[in-house]
């Protein structure tokens, strides 16, 4: 395998997305080739640093807003544009009994 091939496969390698055979060939190359093994280590370090900096479970900023907007589109009666009164009646169905 050539170095260029190895570099293009490093991402898949770190994601464990490669087949057994390809994985073995890549690791053999890394043992022989200091440049590629350095590249692999650097990439791995960068990725683990990114994982620590950005926990994958946290939704991106604006996610709640986008989700709310989609919900409002799906439920037109809740949309502010369709009128406050309608939304309030939907949210508080028992307000008439209380007054
Ligand atoms: Zn190489």
Account of the protein in words:
The chain is an all-alpha fold and 99 residues long. It has 2 domains: 3-53, no CATH class; 62-93, no CATH class. It has helices spanning 3-14, 20-32, 34-53, 63-74, 84-91, 95-98. The longest helix is centred in the middle third of the chain and has 20 residues, at 34-53. The protein is elongated and about 75 Å long. Residues 3, 6, 29, 33, 35-36 line the site of zinc ion.
Summed up:
This protein is mostly helical and 99 residues long. The chain is built from 6 helices and no strands.
Kindly state the number of beta strands: 0
Mean residue pLDDT? 80
Instruction: Give the SSE string.
Output: HHHHHH
Q: Termini separation (Å)?
A: 80 Å
Main beta sheet strand tally, sense and closure: none
Q: Enumerate how many helices there are, as a single number.
A: 6
Output the structural class. Answer: mainly alpha
Which band does the percent of strand residues land in? under 5%
- What does the overall shape look like? elongated
Runs with pLDDT <50, length 5+?
none
Q: Share of helix among residues?
A: 55-70%
Gyration radius (Cα, Å) is 27 Å
Give the secondary structure arrangement, pairings included:
Blueprint: H1 3-14, H2 20-32, H3 34-53, H4 63-74, H5 84-91, H6 95-98
Zinc ion binds next to helix 1 and helix 3.
Question: Which short descriptors sum up this protein?
Answer:
about 100 residues; mainly alpha; about 70% helix; 6 helices; binds zinc ion
